[in-house]
Amino acid sequence: MEKSTLTMLVTVALTLPVAAWAQKPSAYPAKGQTAEQQGTDDGQCLAWAKQSTGIDPAAVAAAPPAPTGPQGERLRGAARGAVGGAVIGEIVDDDAGKGASVGAAAGVVAGGARARRNKAAQAQQAQASQAQTLGTYYNAYGACMQGRGYTVK
């Protein structure tokens, strides 16, 4: 992934937090419902949406993204760098060991950058999944409220 792509992903993740992607829709009484009736309907529709979708929005919002362990990017980068450095060191200085150590160090740095990009992509994917889950829940809530005579936006 290129630096510009990573920058774009981070910008999108920071400018569109999960709360903006899947907020509870507003329900307006369209048939003269009282505030008391609206409160009752709201609570019942929230419970119905939870039951029918199996989604608890409080649990979804509070759940941290699944942790991922080391993916080995640094180790693979070091190995690739050592091999490349050994070849170059042998050709240039007739010292494959020195070239391998320089290449391995460079490979560790490159592998670390790759690991950070992968972690950012995983975080964005988890955030999008969370927003989609909350969206499903609130779609069910909105359908319930519309069925009870409210205009939902």
How would you explain this protein's 3D organization?
The chain is mainly alpha-helical and 153 residues long. The chain has a domain at 71-153. It contains 6 helices and 2 strands, in the order H-H-E-H-H-H-H-E. It has helices at residues 3-15, 18-21, 35-53, 57-62, 73-92, 96-147, and strands at 27-29, 150-152. A two-stranded antiparallel sheet has the order 1-2. Helix 1 runs parallel beside helix 6, helix 3 packs across helix 6 (96-147) and helix 5 runs antiparallel to helix 6. The protein is rod-shaped and about 85 Å long. The model is unreliable at 8-21 (pLDDT under 50).
Strand arrangement, major sheet: 1-2
Structural class assignment: mainly alpha
Radius of gyration, in Å, reads 26 Å
The largest sheet, given as strand count, sense and whether it forms a barrel, is: 2 strands, antiparallel
Summarize model confidence as the mean pLDDT. 74
Which residue ranges are poorly predicted, with pLDDT under 50 across at least 5 consecutive positions? 8-21
Query: What letter string, H or E per element, gives the SSE order?
Result: HHEHHHHE
